[in-house]
Amino acid sequence: MTPSIAEPTATPAAGDWSQFPPVPLWTALKRGFTRRCPRCGQGSLFKGYLTMADQCSHCGLAFEPYRSDDVPAYFTILIVGHIVVPGLLALEKTVHPEYWVQMAIWMPVTLFGTLALLPFIKGAVIGTIWRSKQDK
Ligand SMILES: [Zn+2]
What we know:
Blueprint: H1 25-33, H2 71-94, H3 99-134
Helix pairs in contact: 1-3, 2-3
Organism: Hypericibacter adhaerens
Keywords: Membrane, Transmembrane, Transmembrane helix
Protein name: Zinc-finger protein
């Protein structure tokens, strides 16, 4: 019988940063945008629609210190606004629909666009915040 050798665990100990190479800003942003841990890219960043998980289930990174406040809402409004307003104005200039038609089109686009984009933008903001604090 061969002596057993301890297998490396799939989940590193919390706080053990040596297994993780430095993460470029763009990578941290992309990992956050996909709602994954910005450090390892494996564990989920969220436990609900917008509720942050306490820590990464893979690498143990605590997410509690990284708060995005109103920044995701700002960027979401900025992006959705840049889709809705030109679309509304272009439709008004070309087709001249009734106001209720404009509202029937652009209110749902605004509502569902915002709700669809917000969790991804929040993840990207958290990833960016996490990466910016690594340089300090
Ligand atoms: Zn992680």
